[in-house]
Amino acid sequence: MSKNVKVLYHITGYQNSRQFEWLYRAVYNEHDLFVLHIDKKAPSHIHDEFRRITGTKSNVSFLPSLSVVWGGNGLIDAELMAIHFGLDHDPSWTHIVNLTAQDYPLISPEAIREQLEASWPANFVLCNDIRNVHWRIRKRPLFRYVEWNNKRFFTPIPRVAPKGLHIGWVGPWWHILTREFCSWLVTDDKAHRYRRFLRDAGMPDEMLIQNVINDSPFKDRLISCCKHEILWRRPGEPRSSSARPKVYTVEELPALETSTAFFARKFDHRLDDKVMMAIASRQRLNVPEPVS
Question: What's the pLDDT at 3?
Answer without folding.
Answer: 61
